[in-house]
Amino acid sequence: MTETPTPTQPQPQPRPQPLSWKLVIDSADPHAQAGFWAEALGYLVEDNSPLIEQLLAAGAVPEAITTHAHGRRAWLDLAAARHPDDPYDEVSGTGQGRRLLFQRVPEPKTVKNRLHIDVHSAPGQRDTEAERLAALGARALRTYDEQGGSWMVMTDPNTRNNQF
User: Among residues 10, 159, 30, which one has the least CA distance to residue 103?
Assistant: First the structure.
């Protein structure tokens, strides 16, 4: 008697490590943007100053590519806001989780954003949150009240054409 071979079950493949990511946003003033979004979202402005000071002391980078922002040494053309609960590299200060990186670009914005950030408030708190964001420098453009919902379009404080 011959045994009927049983079909082999596919072996589960190990899941790849999740990719690390950041949202990179062009900006005329990355430090102001990082400060605004850190306040708006309850994030932290990344502190890259220990790495910058180390690189400056070693002569590895020129001082011209640094500035002072948020009370410490920072990269001139880059600033980021990261979630306070996410891991970060202690040497560089770079977040390794939910992160918004703002990079300086020389050209002004000329077309509508293809991406924007939606922020959501607790039920009944939209106007209070809109006032808080306005105090941080945002500006309300218009409000929509439709059967499908109600929302407000606002601009960020530094580039009046950037909507979130």
Answer: 30
Task: With H, G, I as helix, E, B as strand and everything else as coil, classify residue 120.
Answer: coil
Quote the pTM value. 0.81
Per DSSP, the residues of 35-62 read HHHHHHHT-EE---HHHHHHHHHTTSS-
Query: pLDDT of 35-86, one tens digit each?
Result: 999 999 999 999 999 999 999 999 999 999 999 999 999 999 999 999 999 9
Q: Is 55 left (phi over 0), alpha (psi -120 to 50) or beta?
A: alpha
Residue 160 in 3-state DSSP? coil
For tokens 């109600």, the residue is: 150
- Rounded to whole angstroms, the Cα distance separating 31 from 100 reads 12
